[in-house]
Amino acid sequence: MFMFRSRKTNLTKRLKDRKRRSNETRRSAEEDAVSIDNFLKKLQENQLEMLLKAIDSRGQELSNCVLLPQKVGEEPHVLFCQTWRWPDLRQGTELRRLPMCRTASDSVYICCNPYHWSRLCQPESPPPPYSRTNADRIKPEDRAPSEVPLVCRDSFPGSLTTNGDSCLNSLEWCKLAYWEMSDRVGPLYPVEPSAVNVFSDMLHPDGLSLETLAQHSFSPTGPAIQKTRCKIGLGITLSHEDDCVWVYNRSDNPIFVHSLALEDHDSPSPTRVPAEHCLCVYDSFKAAQQNFGWNFTHPHLGPIDPNSIRISFVKGWGPKYARREITSCPCWLEILLAPCR
User: Fold this and answer.
1) What are the residue ranges spanned by the domains of the chain?
2) Domain 2-119 CATH assignment equals 3.90.520.10
3) Protein fold of 134-337
4) Residue 173 contacts by C-beta under 8 Å, 6 or more apart in sequence?
5) How many whole angstroms separate alpha carbon 81 and alpha carbon 300?
């Protein structure tokens, strides 16, 4: 019994040593400290170990749920996220579970692993307009594959016609195309599970490894691409949830998203999703309300496939960025939603 208590006490102390600094008043900080102590006392030794593992690895190592009973008026998961991840977090409505968390439908317990949660993306002001000359503008023929008419994509490697390898089968909800600048890298990646991870060279049991794809690239990789790819880290998780597609940015750097289903889809610039934030990037109901036709023409981009989503890692594009087109971004991803048209 003494050894058990000693081990648990040691784990609790190590967790407290890893608290993030907070701008709260002294009184509220003291109240939170008391609440944290009370919640930690309710955790078993193996739960404390899982929590410590998640915090020390900053989510890079897979960790299990850390469960506490749900009680009216208590939000232990919010307090845990404030303590070990986001001191400026205000309330639970700012959070959304990552697909890896298995307690979404659990009404008895709540997961308090702070790395099983993501912050909902809030609108941000874009950077000021970037000054450039006409010589810097990319040619129309060098547009992204989702910006040109297509029926069923099928060519690899190709310049800018994703012309995909084959139509999606009935089990695939999307295919992923990875690009470095204007060069397609690797074959299309079919996705059947409801969630898929896209990362650089981090160890992960499944998902799309961009480093592995790059090893089979037919084009030389420049320093800008290598530098950007190294910053992707844990990358993103794409999740198909109730006729919506969510993107969870799990890296330490922002991503930039363009989708015709976003509120600001008319903007020539993409939506910025900060590190550790998430965003619904496609809603089939909203898309249907927009009456997207096959020959949809975007006011700024020209012909564009309405069922595609484009995501650039680290670097943004558009008139307010140094890169005008996504094909000037070092590392970017195209999500080609089913059904194949």
Assistant:
1) 2-119, 134-337
2) yes
3) Tumour Suppressor Smad4 (2.60.200)
4) 191, 192, 194, 240, 337, 338
5) 40
Look at the pTM and tell me if it is higher than 0.85: no
Looking only at the bridges linking them, the beta strands covering 208-209 and 95-97 are: unpaired
Report which residue type is found at 248.
Answer: Y
The angle, 0 to 180 degrees and rounded to 10, between the axes of the packed helices 2-17 and 26-42 is 140
Q: Phi then psi for 189, rounded to 5 degrees?
A: -110, 110
Span 248-302, pLDDT tens digits = 999 999 999 998 888 766 677 899 999 999 999 998 887 777 655 444 555 555 4
The per-residue pLDDT for range 95-133, each reduced to its tens digit, is: 999 998 988 667 789 999 999 999 999 866 555 554 444
DSSP line for 132-179: --GGGSPPGGG--GGGS--SS-B-SS-SS--B-SS---TT-SEEEEEE
Task: Give me 341's structure tokens.
Answer: 């048209």
